[in-house]
Amino acid sequence: MLFKCRNCGGNIVYDPVKKAMCCPHCESLDSEEKLPGSSIVNNCPNCGAPIVLKEHTSATKCPSCGSYLIIDERVQEVYEPELIIPFKLGKNQVKEILYKEFGKRPFTPAGFLSYAGLEKMEGNYVPFFMYDYSADINYSAVGTKVRSWTSGSYRYTETSYFDVVREMDADFEKVPVDASVEMDDTKMDLMEPYKYGELEKYQDKYLSGFYAEKYNMPSTELEGRAEEKVQRDSEELLKSTLGGYATLTNVNKSIRTDKKGVKYALLPVWEYIFGYGGTEYKFMVNGQTGKVVGTTPVAKGKVIAYGATVFGLVTLIGFMIRMALMAL
Ligand SMILES: [Zn+2]
Ligand SMILES: [Zn+2]
After folding, report:
1. What is the pLDDT of residues 17-50, one digit of tens each?
2. Phi/psi of residue 317, nearest 5 degrees
3. What pLDDT shows up at residue 297?
4. Where do the structural domains in the chain lie, given as residue ranges?
5. What pLDDT digit, counting tens, does each position of 148-182 carry?
6. Distance from the CA of 64 to the center of ligand 1, in angstroms?
7. Is residue 159 a contact partner of residue 184, using CB atoms and an 8 Å limit?
C-alpha cells in the first residue's frame, strides 16, 4: 500500500516530530488516503517501476520515484504486528545527535558528518517478539556464619548453621528477542533499553516514510533466547537474596519457567552507513531514545562501543519472597 495526499497526490509520510501524517510536498497534515495494492509481485503503484524486494522486507522505498511502499501481504494476517513503537526522532534530530557525539572527536574522518552522507540515513523498523514468562524459583541450602573473638589467651570461633530456604515467584513481562536474521544481535542488544511503556497498537501509517522487515522466523523458534534471559535474571534475583553467609552447602535449586504469552512488535532504529578505507561502518541510533551504537573508523582500528552493556528489559511486575531462616 501507499499513502497519497488528497490535496496534491504526493506521497505522505509519518512525521515523528509532528506525530502526524505529513505531506512533504504541500505540507498538508493528515490528508492521507490509503492506496492498497503493493504486493510482492507488483511494480510501484505510483510510477510502475519494478520493485526488487529482499526476502523479509515489509516496507521500502521505490528506487525510481522515491515513494515509500508498504507490502500488504507482509503486514497482514499472520504478519500483522500487534505492537509498535513509532519513530520518535526524525532524521534532523538524529543528525544533531551524531554531530554532538562525533563532531569534536579528533579522529573522526572528514566526510563522516557530511550533509550528503547523513541525508542518506534511513529509518528501519526491526521485528521483535516480546515474551511474557513466569518463574518459580525454589532454593534450599545449609548456610554458615562465622564469628571469632579473643578472650584472655584463647581465640574462639563460633560457627552457626542455618537452613536457608527461598521460594520465589517472579513475573517477567515483555522480554524482547529480535526476529531479524540480518540485524546483528549484539548491536540490537546494545540498542536497548527501549521505553516499552510507549508501545502502541500497530497501524500501517507509522511505516510510511521508513523501511521495515517482517519477522524472519516464528516465535516458537526464538523463545529459547527469551527463556535464557529469564533463567539468567531469575538466578540474579535469587543471588541478591543470599548475601551474608560464609558458606552455602547442600544446595538444592530449581528454576521453573513458564511461557505466558508472546506478542509481535516493531521497534525503530535509524541506520547510518559510512564507507571509509574500503570498510563499511554501520551506526545505529535508537529511533525512540537517541542512543548511539557504532564504532568510528579511527587509528589502529581501535574500537569504541557506545552505550553500556545491557541487561535486556525485564520488568518485574511483582515478586514474592518467602524466606524461612532458622538457626539450628
Ligand atoms: Zn500534499
Ligand atoms: Zn515509484
Report:
1. 999 999 999 999 999 999 877 666 678 888 889 9
2. -80, -10
3. 62
4. 1-79, 127-327
5. 999 999 999 999 999 999 999 999 999 999 999 88
6. 19
7. no
Rounded to an integer, what distance in angstroms lies between the CA atom of residue 211 and that of residue 61?
7
Q: What is the pLDDT of residue 277?
A: 79
Grid cell of 63 as nine digits? 528506487
Q: Which ligand is nearest to the CA of 44?
A: 2
Q: What is the pLDDT of residue 314?
A: 32
Per-residue pLDDT at 38: 64
Q: Which ligand is nearest to the CA of 66?
A: 2
CA of 255 to the centre of ligand 2 (A): 54
Which residues neighbour 200 within 8 Å (Cβ) at sequence distance 6 or greater? 83, 84, 85, 86
pTM of the shown model: 0.81
**CB distance 321 to 179 below 8 Å:** no
**How close is the Cα of 200 to the center of ligand 2, in Å?**
30
Q: Which residues pair with 157 in a beta bridge?
A: 148
Distance 285 CA to ligand 1 centre (A): 29
Q: Which residues, 6 or more positions from 247, have their beta carbon under 8 angstroms from its beta carbon?
A: 143, 144
Which ligand approaches the C-alpha of residue 28 most closely? 1
Give me the residue label for grid cell 562501543. Answer: 305
Q: Which-ligand-closest: CA of 11? A: 1
Q: How far is the CA of 51 from the centre of ligand 2 (A)?
A: 8
DSSP 293-308: E-----GGG-----S-
Near ion ligand 2, which residues have CB within 5 Å?
Answer: 44, 46-47, 49, 62, 64-65, 67
- Ligand number, closest to the Cα atom of 6: 1
Which residues, including other chains, have CB under 8 Å from residue 222's CB and lie 6 or more apart?
A: 129, 177, 179
Cell of 206: 507509522
pLDDT for position 307: 27
What is the C-alpha radius of gyration for the chain, rounded to an integer number of angstroms?
26
Q: Which ligand is nearest to the CA of 29?
A: 1
Low-confidence ranges of the chain (pLDDT < 50): 299-328
Cell of 84: 509498535
User: Nearest ligand, CA of residue 42?
Assistant: 2
